[in-house]
Specification:
- It is a single chain.
- This protein is mainly alpha-helical.
- The chain is built from 17 helices and no strands.
- The longest helix has 30 residues.
Length: about 300
Amino acid sequence: MEINPEIEKKIQLLDEKFQKIDQKTETHLEGLLWSKPITYWDYIQTDALLNLQTQRTTLPDEMVFIMYHQVNELLFKMILWEMSQLCHSEKPATDFFTERLMRISRYFDMLTTSFDIMGDGMEVEQYLKFRNTLTPASGFQSAQYRLIEFASTDLINLIDHRFRATIDRNTPYEHAFEHLYWQAAGKDHATGKKSYLILEFERKYKAEFLRHMEEYNTINIWQKFKQLPESDQKNPELIQAMRHFDKTVNITWVMGHLNAAKKYIGGGDATGGSDWQKYMHPKFQRRIFFPELWTKDELATWGE
């Protein structure tokens, strides 16, 4: 039987591929004879994914709450995936930088517009019942969100603004970690005492956070932006894209979260015990990824 030239060419390319890694081509071809065709549910792992929702109560709207936050974490993973490609590119071209930045921004735009799902998608009465079973857990404890912050900007911009004058690039990461802006949510800076919320968060993730802080110290998105040609750094469209990302993450998304929380718990305590209304508001956080791209007036009225 005559072999199709295209098939023969593919077999030759496969042979070259396997020779490069000291593998026997015939062994891999034999394996193809017995392998099962892939299905959508196997590839996406649908069954596993749909079995990750475990309620702690009998209240139906708790399932909305769980799934919404799991979707958020998947989007955070997508954002980190793009950030890793961008930040670990030795000298990213402007078009590559811009394209990846827009991908990241679109994911955060999706997160921002999704708050209506949780904000209008649960009965307040049900939420106020099942939330008591979540204590002391808190959305504050999303590690991926912290990793996104470290990959976005120079570390100094994540330091509590009250302590920035005492910290520079020579400051040990351990010391800088103790003065990150979100420490204020569960740490008494007068006594140094930390809440259970913070202690458990650190027990689980502190080592990873310190590694990430060091890894992205010189390769974060702002540092990659500064590597672009000077003319491109002044491009109005690219500057607007950087500002959009900054504002979306640090104002729009945060305020969407804050307003949703206000609807359900008013002035009540957060499940993790943090002073959430003060901690979450952008004008108190003063978290700005790219301060050099904003005017003095814009910086002074950030989050207002």
